[in-house]
């Protein structure tokens, strides 16, 4: 085995440009799902009408982090992203724990969104198109099959599919915002949601937690390094474009949604019926056709999330197996598509098996979805915090910070403070994220941080019994 490890590491291939990479990552953020399913919840249970400013704060934290993240990618020019960067800055033991944790996070998104997509798919078919009333897992299997095929093929093809889906979402959101703006909302457009007097309405902690979680997936820009054209230009453009686009969409849509309900009545209306409040604005200011279009695109939006999570998770599995942590057979590269097809098939099989267990054990599918998304959110926030600490630690230790102090030290540490705050809030309010009891939340918290601990212990074992594999941790 050790002799095999000395061979040249397998490398993926692709030809994505800036727009292809941007669409792949932006699709993971599922802007239409955020608009319909998250923004009303944030207003109802988070920061009330002061919610728009939280997206600005979340965007600033992510932008500060991205600056150091991209600086690190210039210095460490290899795939692996958080896994590679945490290893370089904080050591192989914490690095392996972070790599395994991010594999868990993306797998949870991939597997968790299948029942969510199956439920909304079935509802649309039955209620809108008057089709057969079939169990959620039938429609979830259809989504799974599409994802399995796309994950096997060249990533460029997945990028094109998600680009079409994302364009549809953005068109619907643009029309929704345009008609509300043109009609002046319910009582004329008001800037009250941006007033400092409303910044601390309701629960600031829940609002900030949810807002920060809406800027996910930008790690993919570096993880796909071997599969893009001219990574030195493509990766920064796609990353900053993603953050800027997300901030503009979320802030604008939240502000206009509040104005569509009326600033004085928005909070009470959303608390009374979060879903109904958003649906009513689509019909009142748009039309039933716009509402139906949005309903259909929520399904394709969920599909795009699963595709992206599947692709990223497969590449984490590929990188870990290429390092020898997992069997090297999992790092197979398809001779034609240049994709991690073996890792992709393993991801597909695992997601199918887990959802089959949900069906067989009669677990509530939406409770399962909420729990897995809660696990993914907390895991991702924790690894981002560790990465924000690892970046300045590595750049300072190697002397690569001298001409870039702001990018290398100041902004990453500012992001670490932001992510650290969000991480603490996540832990304290985890029962709200998962929708379960405190006991269930404690079990899931133990599971999340137990995964980090497992990676730490595994690294210790590799250092003792398989030192050459240990040296490869973090794509070293």
TrEMBL record:
According to its record, how does it sit in the membrane?
Answer: Multi-pass membrane protein
Origin organism is: Rhodococcus jostii
Q: Which UniProt keywords apply?
A: Membrane, Transmembrane, Transmembrane helix
Q: Where are the transmembrane segments?
A: 21-43, 49-70, 100-124, 136-155, 162-182, 202-225, 237-258, 293-318, 339-361, 367-389, 409-431, 443-462
Compartmental location: Membrane
Pfam families in UniProt: AA_permease
Q: What name has this protein been given in UniProt? A: APC family permease
Q: Which residues form the Amino acid permease/ SLC12A domain?
A: 43-468
Q: Which InterPro entries match?
A: AA-permease/SLC12A_dom (IPR004841), APC_superfamily (IPR050367)
């Amino acid at each position: 085995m050790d002799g095999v490890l000395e061979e040249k590491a397998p490398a993926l291939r692709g030809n994505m440009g800036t727009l292809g990479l941007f669409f792949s990552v932006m699709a993971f953020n599922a802007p239409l799902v955020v608009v319909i399913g998250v923004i009303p919840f944030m207003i109802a249970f988070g920061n009330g009408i002061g919610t728009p400013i939280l997206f600005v704060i979340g965007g600033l934290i992510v932008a500060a982090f991205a600056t150091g993240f991209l600086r690190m990618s210039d210095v460490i020019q290899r795939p692996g992203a958080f896994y590679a960067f945490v290893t370089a800055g904080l050591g192989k033991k914490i690095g392996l724990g972070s790599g395994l944790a991010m594999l868990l996070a993306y797998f949870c998104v991939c597997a968790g969104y299948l029942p969510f997509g199956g439920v909304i798919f079935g509802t649309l078919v039955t209620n809108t198109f008057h089709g057969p009333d079939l169990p959620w897992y039938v429609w979830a299997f259809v989504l799974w099959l599409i994802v399995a095929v796309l994950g096997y093929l060249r990533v460029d093809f997945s990028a094109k599919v998600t680009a079409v889906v994302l364009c549809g979402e953005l068109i619907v959101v643009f029309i929704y915002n345009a008609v509300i703006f043109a009609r002046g909302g319910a009582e004329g457009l008001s800037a009250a949601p941006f007033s400092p007097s409303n910044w601390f309405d309701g629960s600031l902690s829940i609002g900030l937690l949810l807002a920060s979680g809406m800027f996910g997936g930008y790690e993919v820009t570096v993880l796909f390094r071997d599969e893009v054209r001219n990574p030195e230009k493509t990766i920064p453009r796609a990353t900053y474009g993603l953050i800027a686009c997300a901030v503009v969409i979320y802030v604008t849509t939240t502000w206009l949604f509040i104005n569509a309900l009326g600033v004085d009545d928005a909070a009470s209306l959303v608390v009374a019926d979060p879903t109904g409040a958003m649906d009513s604005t689509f019909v009142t200011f748009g039309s039933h056709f716009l509402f139906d279009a949005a309903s259909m695109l929520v399904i394709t939006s969920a599909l795009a999330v699963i595709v992206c999570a599947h692709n990223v998770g497969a590449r984490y599995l590929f990188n870990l197996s290429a390092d020898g942590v997992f069997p090297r057979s999992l790092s197979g590269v398809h001779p034609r598509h240049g994709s991690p097809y073996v890792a992709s098939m393993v991801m597909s099989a695992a997601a199918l098996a887990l959802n089959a267990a949900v069906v067989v054990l009669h677990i509530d599918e939406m409770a399962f979805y909420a729990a897995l998304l809660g696990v993914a959110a907390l895991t991702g926030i924790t690894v981002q915090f560790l990465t924000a600490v690892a970046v300045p630690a590595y750049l300072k230790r190697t002397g690569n910070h001298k001409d870039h102090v702001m990018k290398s030290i100041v902004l990453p540490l500012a992001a670490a403070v932001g992510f650290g705050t969000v991480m603490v809030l996540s832990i304290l309010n985890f029962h709200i994220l998962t929708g379960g009891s405190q006991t269930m939340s404690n079990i899931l918290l133990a599971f999340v941080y137990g995964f980090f601990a497992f990676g730490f212990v595994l690294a210790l074992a590799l250092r003792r019994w398989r030192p050459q594999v240990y040296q490869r941790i973090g794509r070293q």
